[in-house]
Each structure stands twice: as structure tokens, then as C-alpha cells.
Amino acid sequence: MENSKAPIFTMSIVAIIVGAALYKQIDFKTMTVEKPALSILYAVTFLFAVAVLVRNYRKGAEK
């Protein structure tokens, strides 16, 4: 049972850190990003972490 909680915890931490970094990159006044390539990498990583969390949530809800 403990092994199934490790990916959820890890991806939660990754999503929080990368989401905060992505938020800091965005300038909402001009709707631009500071470093476009880094922002794309942050966005892909954030979406991957959220997808893993959603997949694990759905798998847990089925049981």
C-alpha cells in the first residue's frame, strides 16, 4: 500500500513547484513570458504531473 502513495506525493510536489515557477515566468500585463523555451518545458512538466495525478485518482476511484 505504501508504494502506491509515493508517486502521488512526488508528482504533487513536482506539480506545485513547477506550477509556481511557471506562474512567476508569466507577465500578465503584456501576456508574455520571460523565457519562452523554459516556460514550454515547465508547462509540459506541469501537464505531465497533473496527468499522472488524475490517472492515479481515477484508478483509486474505481476500486
UniProtKB/TrEMBL annotation:
Asked if the record carries the keyword Transmembrane helix, the reply is yes
Record field: transmembrane? 7-26, 38-57
Classify the source by domain of life. Answer: Bacteria
Q: Which UniProt keywords apply?
A: Membrane, Transmembrane, Transmembrane helix
Q: Does the keyword Transmembrane apply?
A: yes
Name of the featured protein: ATP synthase F0 sector subunit C
